[in-house]
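Tutorial, part two.
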Amino acid sequence: MTGEYARRRLQMSATADRGLMARAMWALARAYVVYWLRVAPTVRGQLRRWETRAGEIPDPSLKDLALGKLANERFNVEVAAMIATTAPRSSRARATRAIVALQVMYDYLDALTEQPTAHPLRTGFQSTQAFIDAVQIVAPPTKDYYAYYPTTSGDAGYLVDLVHTVRTEIAQLPAVDSIADVILSPTARVAGAQVRIHAIPHTGRRQLERWADGQATDTGLGWREWLFGAMGSVVAAHALIALAADQHTTPGQARVLDETYLQLCMLTTALDHLVDYERDSKTGQQSYLYLYTTREELAGQIAVMVARVKKRAYRIPNGAHHLMILSGVVAYYTSQPGARTDYARPVTKLVQNQLRPLITPTLATLYAWRLAKRLDRLRLWRLMKGNRPGAK
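Running the prediction step on this input gives:
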């Protein structure tokens, strides 16, 4: 009886997995259509808006930071906005504007908190308060985000405008009350991780590890997995914004979604560092993969997180859509050239296999996109070479 029961459970589980994968494939196709027809035009318009505002910053160093991030991290914004495809049509544009502004702010604050100061924790926590203020729609914003930053002419309200945009758009989403308390968690996580990581050269690693260890209590995650999840938790905030666009959302659903995305964000951070590992080793850039004793240990934790997120996809609203986002995140990182290095390849192949066949069309699309970009750069190089004086 026990053996028969176990066999039936396995059959039911396999059937459910195939059904979820089929829905996720449909969600992927739908998301592409919705994104390019409805979301992408809003994203492009918002990026032009923030590029114009960044160009008005009077302080040269702050202007360079803002414009540099908008130029170099544009794809991050576009990927983040893909989450808005889960929002109902009536509130999708509002959710998209909030997500774009929040991602632009995150990238800018990431650059700002990297700048050397005498008191990096105090300075960093003051500036990243903007990230928390952006989703704290009841309490008034801090505004004086540069109180401890050694700047002379300021940013002409650039950071305040980003905060105001996110607050205004979120406040008008139909289920804002259901996510209001929950969204403070991912924003506090990512702000804390951002500041403490960049403060390591001044304060050492121990303060980061102690903080993560305390925060991971009762989450079911080890402190390293929790820290990696915190580092990428801006994605969890985006998912909650999209969830707030649905009037039927409950606080319980918001909490489960945040817990799920904490684990998904562990993957984004781990894979990001994994594909850059060999390049970072050559340049001396800090990689937080040192927290794992071996590559096999890291691979094991990544595999566990993928399995957990897949399992949780049954319990969250638009679960198939979020499983599609997981596959998109994994495809984005594992299609990069760094994923084919000797160090990264065994791990990237493992996580890709966990998500087949769902990941296959996204991988093919990204491989083609990366090839097209390389060909464009090659054509440009040849054109420039041909226009040089004396070129034959």
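The chain has a mean pLDDT of 86. In part three we will examine how such features are distributed along the chain.
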